[in-house]
Structure formats: structure tokens, C-alpha cells
Amino acid sequence: MSVARFWRKIPQRYNLIGTKCETCGQHFFPPRTFCPDCRRTGKIVDHKFAGTGTIVTYTVIQTAPDQFASPGPYVLAIIKLDEGPQMTSQIICDPKDAKIGMRVRGVFRKIATDGESGIIHYGTKFVPVE
Amino acid sequence: MVGIITYGVYIPRYRIKVEEIARVWGANGSEISAGLGVFEKSVPDLDEDAATIAVEAARNALLRRTIDPEQIGAVYVGSESHPYAVKPTACTVGEAIGATPNMTAADYEFACKAGTAAIQTCMGLVKSNMVKYGLAIGSDVSQGAPSDALEYTAAAGGAAYIIGNDDPIATLNHTCSFTTDTPDFWRREGQDYPRHGGRFTGDPGYFKHVKGASNLMLEQMKKTPKDYTYAVFHQPNAKFPQKVAKDLGFTADQIKPGLVVPRLGNTYSGASPVGLAATLDIAKPGDTIFVCSFGSGAGSDAFDITVTDAILSDTFRRGAAPSVEKLLQNPIYLDYAKYAKHKGKLVMQA
Lengths: 130, 350
Description:
The structure holds two protein chains of two kinds.
Chain A: H1 3-8, H2 10-15, E1 17-21, E2 27-28, E3 44-48, E4 52-61, E5 74-81, E6 86-91, E7 103-113, E8 120-128
Antiparallel strand pairs in A: 1-2, 1-3, 4-5, 4-7, 5-6, 7-8
Chain B: E1 3-10, E2 14-17, H1 18-25, H2 29-36, E3 40-43, H3 50-64, E4 72-78, H4 89-96, E5 104-108, H5 114-127, E6 133-141, E7 156-164, E8 170-182, E9 185-186, E10 195-196, H6 202-221, E11 230-233, H7 239-248, H8 252-255, H9 261-264, H10 271-280, E12 288-292, E13 297-307, H11 324-328, E14 332-333, H12 336-342
Parallel strand pairs in B: 2-14, 4-5, 4-6, 11-12
Antiparallel strand pairs in B: 1-7, 1-8, 2-3, 6-7, 8-13, 9-10, 12-13
């Protein structure tokens, strides 16, 4: 990943900054600049997601890409954030403990590193709520 | 008065027992544990480093008190394991807590006392009205060479302190330091592991500097050890802080709440700050706390602290973030092979 591509998404990666339509109340992550329902009457503002949600479904990745901080196996899940949108993220837990419907919360972790000398990609992963 | 507005700690879930490390190197684990007073140490997850620990500790501090992060005008992160040689951990922390861009930031390194040096800097900036709040963090994923004595204690963890003037939970009444050029422990540029002077780290290193700063503090505050409810000393192992406390005239009860090293190991820049946090976890208004850190190279920072009524007020929610005790509970134990993987000690194919 290029430095600029990572840098551009830092607000989303670190703090789950998405958007919200103030007209209809819908939340968007990744952020949308346009409400697909309200269209011209929509008013889009930034929204920081609480970082809590529920696992909708998941898979266990056995072979991770080389640059990933966790070499696998790791749990990759679709998480429904409490505000509504769904996102894909790693779940930090033993793969046998992952369950559909499990409550999770966001934490700050290393996602990947660009080789031995490149930048470190930090971001949000999720852990089970205890 | 300048003081601690809020604080937070983060300790990774993983642990390795001293006996397991000793098993690999053919050493006597129970003898080493008894000698050091350390039984297990924390180990970072595969995707944790000094920056992620610093962020989690800072976020835990912000859970305890409603503070506008944009009012934090300074972020200093002390560590001897910053992820980058050049690129500040403090910027990542500032971004991850929403304090950027109107803030100053820098990384500190002073072996195990960079975290308390960060607290001192924030005290100065707050007292001189240069910033409303300053964030000081000590965070490390400390390194110990395989089979070296340090490997039995070098742990991972950190604590974050927001320093300010408005209604602190504990006032920082005074700080003073004692510093000399003493090569008791070092790591050269590009080296993976630090080296140390063995027994030389004791008397000319730890004891000289901790006693130097502690006696200076007692003298300047015109106090005796009996005037304090609690005391926290840097804890590279359990033996050193217990001995220095006794030599200075502090009792075992005074240092007990802050002596977390037996179950945590030495979190380097995080060590004294985590010990102070464990003490604040149980402190009551009016309690007085003596703190003295130590960083090899070498120096000590001492603090005289008084806990205020604010620690029990509605503006501070001590239970909103995990206590040190809670973070030490429910560990996941690793064998040496998995520990080596977590610490990046295995040489992988390029």
C-alpha cells in the first residue's frame, strides 16, 4: 500500500470516523459524501463511531498476506456497528471462541507493516467484550 | 494546582512464567523467581507495540474523565522500544485520541524513566500556562536477549497521565531529579537487544540514583518516609524496590499497592507509572504518595503527590477503565516457542 493511500484513511482506520445524514439519521462507514436516500435534501456530517458492534458472520484465515502483523490463523469478521453500518475487520480471539452474534469492541493494533523498512499501518481491530 | 487530571493503564493479555524461560536455558526457574521476586511477565500480542500500548493507555485515561482531547496541547511518549527510530510515537497517539493538530509532541528515551520525564515536562508546560492539558505516557515492549538475565523480566505495558490545573485527582506538589553519566545499561543504534553491566546496575546505578533523588525530595519537602501513605519505586525486579524502600525508611505496607512487578515484570518506561496507577486505583482523598523512578544511564525522578477529593467525585469515574489489578487478571500463558514468536525472536524467511 502506498504511503499516501494509508495516510488518507488514517481517520477511518484509527478512530472509525464515518459520516451521518442529519436528514434521515443513517450512518455510513466507510464515509459517504452523499445520502443515497435523501439525495439533494441530505445533510452529511462526520460521525465518530462508538466502536462497539456484533459479529454478523466470520471466517478463519489460515494464510495471511506477508505484510500482516498477525501471520494467522486469525478471525476475519463482518461486524454490524451499533449505529448500523457493517464493516470487515480482524477479531482478536482464539478462532474456536469466535461466534456469530458475539459482542465486540474496537482496539488499536498494528494491521500490517510495509516490509522491514516501510511504514507501519496501525488501525482498528476488534476484541470480544468481556 | 498542577496535578493528575486522569490516568489509564494498558497491559497485554499474554504472560510467560519465569520457570518456562528458565526451562529453555537449563536454569533453575524457582531459584531465579525467588531471587528476583518475579514469577511471570507480560508479553505483547503479535500486533502490539509501544505505540498501540500507549494509545490504549491514553484512551483508558480519557474513559475516566470527560476531557476535550483538542485541549491537550502536548503529548510526550517515553519508551525504549519506539516502533520507529525516526517518526514519533507521540504523533500516532495524538491522532488516535483526537488531540491533533494543535499540539506539540515528542518521543522520549531514558531507559526506564522516560515516562516520568514526560510527566515532568507536562508539569512545566501546565505550570507556565503554555498548555491546558499535557499527556505523558510511559510505554514499552522491552527487550531482553535470549538467555540474558533481562529476559526473565523484560515485559510489556504502559500508563498514561493527563496533567493539568483544573480539579486534579492528585496534586503533583513537587518533583526533583538526580542524574549522572553512568553506563549501567545501554543499547547501541541498530542493535536488537540492550546490554548491561551485570551487578554494576545495582549500587552505582539503581541504588545511588533512587536514593539520590529520594533523599533530595525528602530534604526539599522537609518530610520523612512516615509522612507518606504510599510509596512507589522503579521496579526492575521485586528485590531492588523492597531493599531501597527499607534503606530509605519506608515500610513494606507503603510500597505494597504499587509493587506490581511480581506478576507483571519490568515494563521499563511503564514501570513506575504503572506502579503509581496501581496505587491510585486504591487511594483515598488525603493520601500522600511518594514516587521515585529510575532510568539507566542514569537518573531518577522523584514526585510528592497528594490525592484529592476529586478522585471520588462525579467528574472522575475510576471504574470506567480497568484497574491494574483487573488488567493482571485472566492472563493467557505462552510457552517459550510462542513467546519467541510474539517477541519476533524467530528468524523468518525473507
